[in-house]
Amino acid sequence: MATLKIEKWERWFLYATVVVLVGFFIAIIASIGEAGIHLPTDEAQVDPAAVASGDVPPFDNPGVYEQPDGTYQAVVVAKAWSFDPPEIEVPVGKEVEFVVTSTDVIHGFLISEVAVNGMIIPGQVLKVNATFDEAGVYDVICHEYCGLAHSQMFGQVKVGGEG
Ligand code: CUA
Description:
five-stranded mixed beta sheet, alpha+beta, 10 strands, about 160 residues, Immunoglobulin-like, binds dinuclear copper ion
């Protein structure tokens, strides 16, 4: 009978629902454990007003710094509508840690060639690493709408010679 058939299919849809839920749960756990994806934490919080007035290291000296272990750290302050410094120069093949915050509104930090894609949230510190294996000029794009001149807000990473 037709009704029996519908009940049978209904049971399989219930099973499928459980399978999908378990699958999503595993995906969430894997994204946390394996890929290290997480929401912003309070590990690195700053006062945006103090950053704006230059009272918060390292944001009182935006720029690129070579570290003792040979990697580089780029300290960047974002504000409507620019990145400070607007140009970051690093050598080819060196790991670069970007340490970024905003003094006003939410901005974006996108360097698509090296899969850097972050939100710069006032009060939070964005830390993201990248290695540029090819020399060239890479655009840093603000991809969070941040006001009138949002479309003009970009920076550059200039990657040159061996470090
Ligand atoms: Cu900053 Cu859009």
